[in-house]
User: Fold Major facilitator superfamily (MFS) profile domain-containing protein from Ignelater luminosus.
Amino acid sequence: MTVQIKPINIEKTGKSQQWPQFLAVLSACSLAIGTGLQSGWSTPAVPRLLSNDLDFEITQEEVSIIVMIAPLGYLIGSPFAGFILDRIGRKYTLLILSIPQITAWILTATCQNVPMLCVARFITGISDGSFFTSLPIYMGEVCEPTVRGVLGTSQSMTTLIGTLLMAVYGSYVPIRTAACISLSAPLLFLITFVWMPESPYYLLMKNRTEDARKSLKWLRRMDNVEDELMQISRDVQRQISESGRLRDVFIIKSNLKGFLTLVGLRAVQQFAGISVLMFYVQVIFKEANMSEVTPAVSSIICCGTQLISAYFSSLVIDRFGRKPLFIFSCIGSAILLFIMGGYFTLQKYGEDVSTFSWIPLAAMMLYFLVVAMGLLIVPNLMAGELLSTSVKSKALGVMHMYLGVTISVVSVLFQWLVNYGMDTPFYVFGVCALTGTLFCYFYVVETKGKTLEEIQQELKGNHCSNSMNNHCN
Assistant:
């Protein structure tokens, strides 16, 4: 397919405005708040389920199933999003994704038995898998390179806002009430995002040149967008010429390297404990026998710390780059995981740790602060940067299916390792985090300040200058 661009006479010129890009991304990220509410649900819900908060009994084994079943929904949600992204567009895919969020919260609020609650949690996984596949693509395609870093991290930050909100009100109101409150997030998204523009990349893929021009004018708030439109057209045309079949993810060098980079980043992220430790953070604090602060308050403090860290990281990620922050995050989290492991080892062998009862809260606070600086935000950001437009939706669909399975596997692994003592999972996760530094240093490419086309050329092994003309050798 050839994309035809007809130049038009432009009378007004000027510098692009960035606030419309912020508006579009933040509107889309209101759905991320709902995703954060869903992801953070287990933190306050697990102790409530074990204390019979609902009007039916739930065993410890059933609680474990409820926790691990949500990520398995990625197996449906991710390929579903990958299938419709290139058919109905990025915008309408995101709008459709509000439906499973609304459905899941209604089922949670009205559940009468464990199977019904499991269905609700599985639907949240479908929603999350679809969302994490779709939003990075939309954000990567509507943002200029100069703001893609800070705006790309807004997905992580707004997800953390949802996680923090759930930790706050989920700890103090019944599960059914929390579900009703959580319905506000997808409803807010529907009201605001319906007015946002479609991705100009997608519109050019469909040969809708005039619509793409209008979208760029809205996003840049300037009349003369012809240079950027021509550049995007060339990028899309080249990437479409490389086809868009699923197997192209694995047979084209640049696609495979980008895909394997994301797979590796997600593996390091999850095996460093980022999700499972949040699921069970209140249980961990209870096992630590802290006397100063309750487990509920401790989890709120950790979530708040993580949010603050992600915010400040978003301000510097385009200055320091993705790789340095990820490596620092891996090393820092490994040290803190080993400290937590050491505390529980002393406790396991009967040592008096009452003098050091402040260590679990301090170590976990610092852990969530450090992971938010790199392990959390970098994989989410690079998901929208590393893949060619022609295979992006398909590759992310497969990758997030893998992510869902990985989260479930790590959840099961955590339960199994705890049988050998609460210290064991912390040591294992610490070693995995250290391994991540080697992977990032030797394999991951830096994407700071580069256009999506320049990133593709670097993945091919070509050197590109940082310019609109994309001179590559």
Observations:
- The two ends are 26 Å apart (CA to CA).
- Residues 164 and 304 are 6 Å apart (CA to CA).
- The chain has 25 helices and no strands.
